[in-house]
Structure formats: C-alpha cells, structure tokens
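Before going further, learn to read the protein records used in this course. Taken together, the tokens spell out the fold as the letters spell out the chain. A record is reproduced here so that you can trace the correspondence yourselves:

***
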Amino acid sequence: MASEARSVKSPPRVLVVDDEADLRELLELTLIRMGLGVDLADGVLAAKALLKSHRYDLCLTDMRMSDGDGLDLVRHIHETGTNVPVAVITAYGSTDNAIAALKAGAFDYLAKPVGLDQLRALVKSALRTPDTAAGAPGSQGGRELIGQSAAIAEVRNLIDRVARGTAPVHIGGESGTGKELAARRLHALSGRSGMFVPVNCGAIPENLMESEFFGYRKGSFTGAEADRDGFFQAAEGGTLFLDEVADLPLSMQVKLLRVIQERRVRKVGSTAEESMDVRIVSATHQRLERRVSEGTFRQDLLYRLNVIDVNMPSLRDCPEDVPVLAAAILGRLSGPGRRLPTLPDDTLACLAGYDFPGNVRELENILERALALTAGDVIHPEDLRLTPHPAENAVPEIGRKGALAQGISLQEYLDQMERIAINEALERAGQNRTAAARSLGVTFRSLRYRLQRLGIE
C-alpha cells in the first residue's frame, strides 16, 4: 500500500516568495484551490534555501523585498540551471521593472493588485510548459532555421533561451532572412498548446483591421451575420505572429497597445472584454526606430513589442551557410522519386560569390529555376543564371551635366525610380496590390495603370 501511495503522481508544486504575509496567504489559498502544492518563503534567502532542497514547477516572487530583489532570484534560478519558470509580481505601473525581469529570464509578470483570474491563467500557462525544450522545432513545409555560421547559431541559441517565456519578441532583419521560420521555432519550443497564427499586417485593408484582429458580434455592422473570432481568439494559448508590423496604421497601433497592456480583447460590437493568453511575436524588415522618428510608429508600442530583440543575419554575412542551405532546399524541391541533384565546386563558388540581396528566399528561387532548367542530376554554373543584381534597383546618379550626359533621359530616370518604389511596396505588402497602393498613397486603379505601363508583373 505504501509503495502504491508513493507511486501516485504528486501535484505540481509552486514556490511563493513575498515579504508581505497577507499577499502570501492570498496566493497560497488560490493555488491550493487549483489543486497545487505550495511552499512559502518570506524573502530571497529563504527562497534560495528551499530551491536548493526541493524541486518546483513554478516560482512566484515579489520584485522588492526586505532582503533582496526578485531579479536576483530570477538570475539565481537560471545560473543554477534549476530550469524553473519564474513569474515576478511588480508594483502597479512599474513597467520598467517588469521588462527588466522578462529580459533577465522571467516567464511572465503580474502587476499589483494581483487579479486572481490573471494569476490562474498565468499558472496554467506556466505548468503546461515542458521542463526542457525537447523535440525538433516545428517548421513550415519542412523548412527549418538551419546554418552552421556563428551568427545563425547565436540566433538559435537566443530563441531557445527565451522560448519558454511569454515576453513579446521582435524579429528584425532584411527580407528573405527567415524571420517567420524564427518565429515558428520560438513557438515550437515554447510548449504552448495553442496555434501559431501568422498575420501579414500590410495585407489587411485598414477598415477591416479591427474586426480581423479582435473578431465581431452578430449584427455589429452590415454583413456581420454571425459571431466571428479574430486573430487573437484563434491564437488563444498559442502565438500571434505579426509580420511587417511597421505597416500597421496608427489607429490600429493604439488598439494593439491596449490589448498588449491589458491582456484583454473586445470584439467589435461587444460591451465585454475577454482575457487572453497569447504571446505576441512581431517582425519587419524596416527599422522601427526610424519609423518612430518619422512619426509613423508609436514609441510606446515599440517598447512593448521589442522586449526581446532577435536580429536575423543576412545571407551575405553567412557565406559558409550557402552549401548547407542549398542542399536542404534542393532536397525539399526535388521531391520523392527524384534523385537529389549535386552542386559541383564551380557552382558552389558562383553561389558563394553572389551578393544575395533577397537572402535565403532568393537562393531558393535561383535553385528552383536551376532545377527546372538542368537536364541531368548536376547543376552547372550556367544553370543558375546569376546576373549582377544592382541592374534593376540601382538608381543612376545625375551628375552636374544631368541625366542626358550619362545616356539616360529624364523620363527613363523617373520610370526607373517609380519601378523601384512600386517593387518595394509590393514586397512589403506580400504582393497585395491594394495594400501596396495604400502605402504609396495612390489609388488601386492608378497602381494598376503604372504596373501595366512599366511592365511589372
């Protein structure tokens, strides 16, 4: 009987650290009612002693205590490798302390006065997180964040370290560097049970943004024939990936900021707010600091999104990754039943010497074209059809004698400038012409005319 009793799995155990007896008692009662085991510590020293002799599934600690700081406890837990999720309790309005704790490795934070609903949601989220980031990261269609360079290894290491938390993550980098793959790896290693929901912020018409993000109630506007969930509801318990977040209009930035701060959403046409458990991961190829200085992006939203910063390196900064990336891409493109084509040394040398303005996405396009053109199982340099890249996007300089002195007319010069602007807008909008027209400040009909006149497909 004794052995059978010992074999019964014990409930998860939580360590509560606070020098206020009333708050310790409130947290203890709430956690016990959730069926959890609880140990109490009245300060940092007592908490360290308990951590040394016991195993915990979660630690809740106050930020300011008489014998130390909650940040010290966060760092201590990570330095000793005990791998316990830590949530800090901060004074109302102490956003800087909360962000400092998240950057130090805290799982999440609660603001005083502690809301019991938020506490329960945090505990449930923490306890379903695995102790280790085990298993292969999720991928998109077999694509993974691969590479052997120090730069990409550093990115993977950072993602692996912060994946278990709930702090917002911002991923920067040029187009085609794999920002969405990084976001998917972050979600796969987080242990979150909900979905990964990617959203291209530049591809949604401004008048539909609020209903698309937050959902709506039946009858809230013409055409709302039934209740509908938005992106936040779809990502409940998971990760919401805001791609090209710099393209959000200011009106939507205000609403998004409030949702992140309050962790509650309100559907269009509803009078009630709903609590949410969603991790926000954002990305853009633009410099958000520059957008802030231009007045097109809110500084307070930047601080909320950029708690943890991940910067994706360009492919030209990681030339040693080209062979392994090329092999992985060819393996995926070849498909079952076809022999994997080889890349001889002269072909790899051509790829290594190429600048790749479009990064990994451009490498994939080059190899896909080469695979279609080659007749055998070997891809030769001529199959790559590499061309000097600045030809399309370079802006010819007009010297003191003007454009005509350089063999180019003014109209040709203006057409080239217009072509560059349109291509960049289409790239930012994910080839959505309506969104591209809006970012250029022209009508859709005007953009369509320009595409036809300039021969842009």
